[in-house]
Amino acid sequence: MYMAYGWPQVIPLEVGLCPASEHIVYLKIINRLLLVVAPTHLELWSCSQHKVRLGKYKRDLDSIQREGENSQAVWSPDTKLIAVLTSSFFLHIFKVQNSEKKLQVGGKQPSSLFLATVSLLLSEEVPFSDRNLTMSNIVSDNKHILLGLSNGSLHVISWKGEFCGAFRLHSRPLPTIPVGEPVHSLENGPHSEGSLVALTSNHNSTSSSAVIQLELSLSLRLLVVLFSDGQVALCSMSKKGLKQVESIEVETWLGSGDAACASVASDQQILAIGTKRGVVELYDLAESASPFRTVSLYDWGYSVEDTGPVSYIAWTPDNSAFAIGWKLRGLTVWSVSGCRLMCTIRQIGISSVSSPMVKPNQDFKYEPMMGGTSLLQWDEYGYRLYAIEEGSSERILSFSFGKCCLNRGVSGTTYSRQVVYGEDRLLVVQSEDTDELKMLHLNLPVSYISQNWPVLHVVTSNDGLYLAVAGFHGLILYDLRNKKWRVFGDVTQEQNIQCKGLLWLGKIVVVCNYIDSSNTYELLFYPRYHLDQSSLLCRKSLLGEPMVMDVFQDYLLVTYRPFDVHIFHVKISGELSPSNTPTLELSTVRELSIMTAKSHPAAMRFIPDQLPKECILKNHLSSSSDPFVGQPTRCLVLRTNGELSLLDLDDGRERELTDSVELFWVTCGQSDEKANLIEEVAWLDYGHRGMQVWYPSPGVDAFKQEDFLQLDPELEFDREVYPLGLLSNAGVVVGVSQRMSFSASTEFPCFEPSPQAQTILHCLLRHLLQRDKKEEALRLARLSAEKPHFSHCLEWLLFTVFDAAEISRKNANKNQNSVPKNATSFSLLEKTCDLIRNFPEYLDVVVSVARKTDGRHWADLFASAGRSTELFEECFQRRWYRTGACYILVIAKLEGPAVSQYCALRLLQATLDESLYELAGELVRFLLRSGREYEHANSDSDKLSPRFLGYFLFRSSYKKPSLDSSTSFKEQSAHVTSVKNILENHASYLMSGKELSKLVAFVKGTQFDLVEFLQRERYGCAHLESFASGFELIGQKLQMNNLQSRLDAEFLLAHMCSVKFKEWIVILATLLRRSEVLFDLFRHDMQLWKAYMTTLQLQPAFAEYHDLLKVLEKELSSLPGSEK
User: Fold this and answer.
1) Considering the entire predicted model, what is its pTM?
2) Using CB atoms within 10 A of its CB, is residue 50 exposed (0-12), middle (13-18) or buried (19+)?
3) DSSP 8-state class, residue 286
């Protein structure tokens, strides 16, 4: 799949003769060449590794005034001719030729770029009778071009400039459905010999809609005609293409009456129709053009008012993804399954401009395609997406894309590494050193990629230590451990290899090589320690072009068209090391020729038999003598239409499993790691349903499917995250999503692929427990215990099992026949609790699940998990006070308020002893509220609901009840008195030890009434023996160079002033150097001032405050009568 990376590049274009009306007419890429047609000129660029303008043709002003500006254009498939129609209906045919002038682009290696000349070959007026017509785009085959007009007619012109006639589609579509109304069913339009009528005899035709777009698929023999009334006609053609006009017949009418553009994916047989509503509708051409999916930005908060209608759709070369451009704003790339892979529009609410109508002087980071998208074009490899902004004529934006391994075709796959590869680099997911996934950019050696651009195949070895990378010729290996590249020493040998696919066979890299001279294919086997002809282990000629290949242990699968399967056994003699000369032999062990009308296979993977490890090891050791022992007997087949099936290699029978699959991973038998967490899984697949996991199942049904989307909604991959592969040692699926970073020094944001991890551990554990494999589940859980997501997995395991048990219980109440199933569900709940009880996270997990469920069902949960008071006591003994606090509400619900109050009082004393004042404050508020409710005769325990649990545990907007005499403490019940005594005792303890910072935190956390306490303890624990000793002690407790200590001192000073506690006011104000407070105090008590001044002057420890004395002395001396 495709992920954008890096900054968009800008390709500058020349300014035309009429810059005010300039816009790009045509954009097309063929054979590494990019053609741009503007109203007054043409430009030809190289779109290979180096973006260089190779040629151009500029029309003169006289030609433009006489014949009009360029209006529509088309490029012949062989790139030799360009046809341009002007606004005054003149046809220009240009010839493109390579000159002998070679370009030098830098570096030691010679360039393969040549300058091109574009010359006018033909110019003639088109014989249209009506000069007020407008034209659609132009499509072509090798012999003819076709264009549509606003009067509904279609005209065929040969590449020699000959007008071959015109015809009109007889338009009788379905009644137009109003815009915005969903299409529920589509019927075929008329299909008769009279659907095509010659223009001369078509006076009675009802067609009056203009043709606004044409799409041509020669491989499907399909012509798509889009009319201005929003209707789309699908027309069949003959093998001879546009030459036989009479064979073009309307087969189907599509669209909801608001179609704006269309694009055909020939390989996938999908038609994408963009609408005026800003939505793209996908139709399956293999299934009678039935609609199967829609994509839009509605779920991301953008409507058609923001983006405008769809203006352009462009499919990637492999048809696995498509780009969408909107008229007013933005560009996105989507997978066929509906995953949003890339988006230039910033998400609403993140300092973004959410409206397309943006004033130029607004201050915001520039967004690509902010003014809308007019044209899009992928390069032939899918590494670049070229886009032209609406109304722009001075530049083309080029977005760089990396491709995720889709596990399709001839190249193999592995699960040890996740790699995204670009045209000249690899983006490798790093997960070894840290739990956080990171993306490593690995640039290929310039000496290799400059001659063999671009990267075409990337495969990781099974042990995850090597990467095999193949460009246009040759291949190179990268040692991930030593960070070194290995290349062919002989460049001639490298250039003789044209790699069409790569596989790893243990420590051997297998190359599917195409021999251009003989048009044949062969397999080359190289040891990874040496890339050279002298080390070649084997050369195997193939019968033809392989369609699909795979490797498992010593077995190699090769599939030819249409569906011929050959399986080879690989026997290696000798040790694979540079000091030895090992040999490799291939022997055919199985051949199948399968006759089927289904679509071609896109990927095939061996399915190992589910045997105990001892048997597999034994069979593997004996396989050298008997190639049939341990041979896989089944394989998974993914077809190009997304159908996944299981093929029995013994009898050739194929069993369909599911559809709409984009990629899959066979996990059983693929990893030799001891810490493999997913060995119980047979395979996983991904499609528009999300992730699906398949487990081996004994009995008649060979495999049991478990759908993540149905059973685990939280496991459904986000529609912005596309899965890359698996980390078997962590039990997670690794995906990648787009992030954008902005910089003040760049015009555009940088696109950053961001790896994401999605755990599947709780699904695996539940699967094992369902099959009563308790020991295996415990072993799997212990292997995962150190993973950062482990606690989360246990929580979701218990939650999903408990939720299923509750659903089963409700069904049992409705239907008495469901009792056995209900018992099974509760048995699974007990097994789950028994499993989690082996881990210290158990106490947290149980109460976390309780917080997520209705309090009415807590009794069922704790009947299996254990008595709530016992779990609380265990938390209390372990000093897990916050977890214990979470159990208080559960105890109140299940055991009654008296028990919960007793537990809360114990916990309150313990949290105060540990200085956990925020938690203590939550307990105080609970105790006061619970006490008041308990005293009322009509108290209802149902008030203690999970909603209050959130209020109790977290900060909320509710007003906190305070412990003042006017509210809580007026109720002099034994319950409230206990809370008051505990808080006052703790406050006295803190004040006696002058732990002032803790005292402030205590008051703030519990809302303790400090004023009342100070008034009562003025001559008690708050009393200071002497000013000097008190000043020194408090100065040590409150370090004024610390910001928090200064804030605490300010807090205390405010309270001391409210109770007029002079000695404390003097000390705190001095520490804070609050001269205005001291001045206000001393001006009314000069005797206190003299004692204060004498103490500070006589004590050497207080010398730092002499400057404060001078300030006060100066201010006091200015008072009238101060001398007296």
Assistant:
1) 0.77
2) middle
3) G
